[in-house]
Design brief:
Helix 2 runs antiparallel to helix 10, helix 17 packs antiparallel against helix 24 and helix 26 runs antiparallel to helix 27. With 869 residues, the protein is α+β, with helices and mostly antiparallel strands. Helix content is 56%, strand content 14%. Strand 14 and strand 15 form a beta hairpin. The chain contains 28 helices and 21 strands. It has 4 domains: 206 residues, no CATH class; 167 residues, no CATH class; 255 residues, no CATH class; 169 residues, no CATH class. The longest helix has 54 residues.
């Protein structure tokens, strides 16, 4: 602790620094606040979306500790006789409640069929409430009326109906007319319909079928799940067990990679803004370095300087953190209202959750701002500590002209570390080492800037000397940069960081978009496709529907396919199973295959002497996500989450190849239609693909199909061209926030350049004063600064672009496959990068000239000639 006099002196010095450059400190504070606001905003939006989505699932699932679902997903369901078997063993399994549920996702709203008496013990929030108006309108209890349905308040609003009115729900090609008999008061904020289980089975065509069985386990019975797992295995029940914690893990896996990537981008904006804080601290140190040297010579402790430097940096960063948290809450509120809880990612597109604020979590962001303040003050403190008071009091000694060898070895070490990190596997299914590799390359690139200046500008100086017609300002600028490479790092660090990260993201996004565009061309060979909210839940199209479409004018061919969900593992999101027609002799015509097909080991050897091994009954193709998440590769065997009807054992499949799938991040399996029908007995199909005769109008065929009515009036009919355009629009929306973050980082970097050059002008004021006395005009001095700025900006932008191209390869080939489980080819947007580089150089040059113009006036430079210490 210092005496009170020292503390007053420190406060006086801090106040003087703030008064000397208030706008620069304000800009530094806002840059920190901006980065913190982005981090807080993204965190709050993601947390709010996850909490609301989790609450919505919990409302649907009730208070069930464990659920039994079909491995073919809740869309397929299972025989309701299984409920009787589980109910009979409820006491031996330690269950306090068993409730059957049927889920019916109609086009308008999700319908839950429940046993009203059994659900009271497991899912009391789902119990309906009969209003007095509904009771008076009917004789007897409306609960068991043959057309009664109960809606939540959100469903009443979305369907625009009131209690007592009729509502029409479309599902599976049929329209079911029901009457709203009351409300479901226990479910808030989610559109949901509840019906009696038997009534729902009858009205929607699911007699004898269930989607799930909810099980309630009393507290203290932790062994119940293990007992249930053994019972499932011993009894051979065709269901899988999903625990409450599995549902939480599955929810987290849905959007975790997308959330982490956005958070990293927000931290990048904060990191770039940190350079502006470093510039402000450096400028303050330069202004008062001689004064502190004098205080040191008079006996003041050297730690006073450190407290002053870190006091400034911590003050501006902590205040920026508080401001950023407030702005982040406001930003989250705006984002939830504009882009929704998915932030453009498409994970919770139907959710507009309320803002969830946890004040304790804000301390993490405050700690980040404190750490940023400490790091920002460290360069200025080390520079001051490296010189004695007598050296610091000499005018012009505040600048380090040559880089030290330590920075070179550190940069080379970081490059080596980045190369090693880029080959390491993911951690917790996240590309943490990939991000570490990018950070290593970024810091190495910043440290190498002075060495690049030291290498390139002497060559440019020699070339300039040999040329005629070069102005004096041009010669002086080149010589200056060649002689003082150490001064370049602080000026260009922000530009190198922002440009490299922006170029890396631009190349990654361009590569992704081009790959998606080519992928859409491969996976959309037909001209017209059907889409429905119930697609995958129920068969929609029979052979009669196919014949009706084939009879239309201009239709050349029609194919049916079946899509449904598989519960591969309970803790991960469901895998999509697609059953379709395939040409096994040329599968590349139907699927965007990645790599070569696996050699068929089931073919008899040459001459037929050795018999071929027994072929598994099913051959499948798997997406790239299945390779990463479940270890399935071309030529491997897979155990499918469904039973072989011939043996009763889990069905076995041989993986014939791997295909690229940008539409299903959590995995997809393609199976031949005949194999699917033999395994499941399901002959129905849920989607149609229609080929139009060459030269015939696609819109004309669409109009004819809609005129058929029935199921064609309920599903969405869309042309391949419209579907392709819609997919690319969704892609662009998903990356809109990414572009905004990149732009913010570039703007902050440009301000950092202006601040750094201003500091250089202050350091070199005696140099400019001598040039003014020798007859150099203000315009020539500004030209000198402009040329130096131009040289540094061009080098920084060029070096940043090169670093960005290197980092983009890590993003494309490591981060993206480890995050989203898909691969792509590199596509460099040359025109965009050139435009970006030109804009950064132009804006940075204008900011540098504007910020230094006032300081270069002769009346402000002349006093510097009188300095002799």
């Amino acid at each position: 602790m210092f005496p009170p006099g020292h503390r007053l002196l420190l406060l006086w010095l801090l106040w003087g620094s703030l008064r000397a450059q208030p706008w620069r400190w304000l800009l530094a504070l806002l840059s920190v606040a901006f980065g913190i606001a982005l981090g807080v905003g993204i965190h709050l939006v993601n947390k709010s979306a996850l909490l609301e989505f989790g609450r919505a699932i919990d409302r649907v699932n009730g208070q069930a500790s464990v659920q039994l679902v079909s491995p073919l997903g809740r869309s397929h369901g299972f025989d309701e006789r299984l409920f009787d078997a589980v109910f009979d063993q409820r006491e031996s399994l330690g269950l306090s409640g068993v409730s059957p549920v049927l889920e019916i996702p109609t086009e308008q709203v999700l319908v839950l069929g429940i046993d009203l008496f059994r659900a009271a013990r497991v899912s009391p929030a789902l119990l309906p409430q009969v209003t007095q108006a509904a009771s008076e309108a009917r004789a007897g209890s409306p609960l068991f009326s043959d057309d009664a349905v109960f809606l939540t308040a959100a469903a009443l609003r979305s369907l625009r109906v009131s209690v007592g009115e009729a509502v029409t729900l479309d599902f599976g090609g049929r329209s079911v007319v029901l009457r709203v008999a009351g409300e479901v008061p226990g479910v808030v904020g989610q559109p949901l319909a509840v019906m009696d289980l038997g009534l729902a089975q009858w009205r929607f065509g699911f007699v004898g079928r269930l989607s799930r069985i909810d099980l309630a386990v009393p507290s203290g019975r932790g062994q119940t799940a293990a007992q249930l797992a053994r019972a499932l295995k011993e009894e051979g029940w065709p269901v899988v067990m999903v625990r409450a914690e599995d549902r939480a893990d599955r929810l987290s896996h849905m959007s975790r990679a997308y959330r982490v990537n956005l958070t990293v981008l927000a931290l990048v904006a904060l990191f770039t803004g940190g350079f502006l804080v470093v510039s402000a601290i450096g400028l303050s140190v330069l202004r008062q370095q001689a004064a502190f040297a004098l205080l040191g010579a008079l006996g003041a402790p050297r730690s006073l300087t450190g407290q002053w430097i870190f006091g400034q940096s911590l003050m501006v960063s902590v205040l920026g953190g508080f401001v950023g948290i407030g702005l982040g809450v406001l930003l989250a509120w705006l984002l939830l209202g504009i882009v929704g809880g998915d932030l453009g990612g498409g994970y919770f597109s139907d959710q507009t959750p309320p803002l969830a604020i946890a004040p304790l979590e804000f301390t993490v962001f405050l700690m980040i701002s404190v750490l940023l303040g400490f790091i920002a003050g460290l360069p200025g403190y080390l520079r001051v500590r490296a010189q004695g008071p007598s050296v610091q009091m000499r005018a012009g000694q505040a600048e380090t002209l040559q880089p030290g060898p330590v920075s070179l070895f550190l940069a080379l070490g970081l490059c080596l570390a980045g190369g090693v990190f880029s080959f390491l596997p993911p951690v917790w299914s996240l590309p943490l080492f990939g991000y570490a590799a990018i950070a290593s390359l970024l810091f190495a690139g910043v440290l190498l800037v002075p060495w690049l200046v030291r290498l390139l500008f002497p060559l440019l100086a020699d070339f300039t000397v040999r040329r005629t017609g070069v102005s004096s300002s041009g010669l002086l600028a080149v010589w200056r940069l060649a002689q003082a490479p150490g001064a370049s790092a602080g000026i260009t660090a922000g530009v190198v960081a922002a440009v490299s990260l922006t170029v890396a993201m631009a190349v990654m996004v361009s590569s992704f978009r081009d790959s998606v565009s080519l992928w859409l061309d491969r996976v959309l060979p037909a001209d017209i496709y059907t889409s429905s909210r119930t697609q995958g839940y129920t068969p929609l199209f029979t052979q009669d529907h196919v014949d009706a479409v084939l009879a239309l004018e201009g239709v050349a061919r029609v194919e049916r396919s079946r899509q449904m969900s598989l519960v591969w593992t309970p803790e991960r999101p469901e895998v999509v199973l697609i059953a379709r027609s395939l040409d096994w002799n040329a599968p590349h015509r139907s699927l965007p295959l990645v790599g070569a097909l696996a050699p068929d080991p089931f073919m008899a050897t040459e001459g037929g002497r050795d018999p071929a091994p027994e072929r598994p009954p099913v051959r499948v193709f798997v997406s790239e996500a299945m390779v990463d998440l479940y270890g399935l590769t071309a030529g491997s065997h897979a155990t499918l989450p469904m039973r072989d009807p011939r043996t009763g054992a889990p069905a076995q499949a041989w993986v014939a190849g791997v295909f690229r799938d940008y539409g299903r991040q959590h995995g997809a399996v393609v199976m031949y239609s005949d194999d699917y029908e033999q395994l499941t007995g399901d002959l129905g199909k849920s989607a149609l693909s229609v080929w139009v005769v060459s030269g015939h109008s696609v819109d004309g065929v669409l109009a004819q199909m809609k005129a058929l009515g029935g199921v064609f009036a309920q599903v969405s009919l869309i042309s391949a061209q419209s579907l392709r355009e819609l997919s690319l629009q969704i892609f662009d929306r998903s990356f809109a926030l990414t572009y905004a973050l990149e732009l913010a980082a570039l703007i902050v970097a440009v301000f950092a350049v202006a601040s750094g050059l201003t500091a250089q002008v202050i350091v070199r004021r005696k140099e400019f004063a001598l040039l003014a006395q020798m007859g150099q005009s203000l315009s020539q001095r500004m030209g000198l600064v402009a040329r130096e700025a131009l040289g540094l900006l061009v080098l920084a932008v060029a070096w940043g672009c090169l670093l960005g191209l290197l980092m983009s390869q890590i993003l494309i080939h490591r981060v993206n496959p480890q995050s989203f489980h898909w691969t792509m080819k590199t596509s460099v947007p040359s025109l965009m990068i050139l435009s970006l580089a030109t804009a950064v150089v132009a804006i940075g040059l204008a900011a540098a000239v504007w910020s230094s113009a006032r300081l270069l006036q002769q009346r402000l430079l002349t006093p510097a000639l009188k300095e002799d210490w």
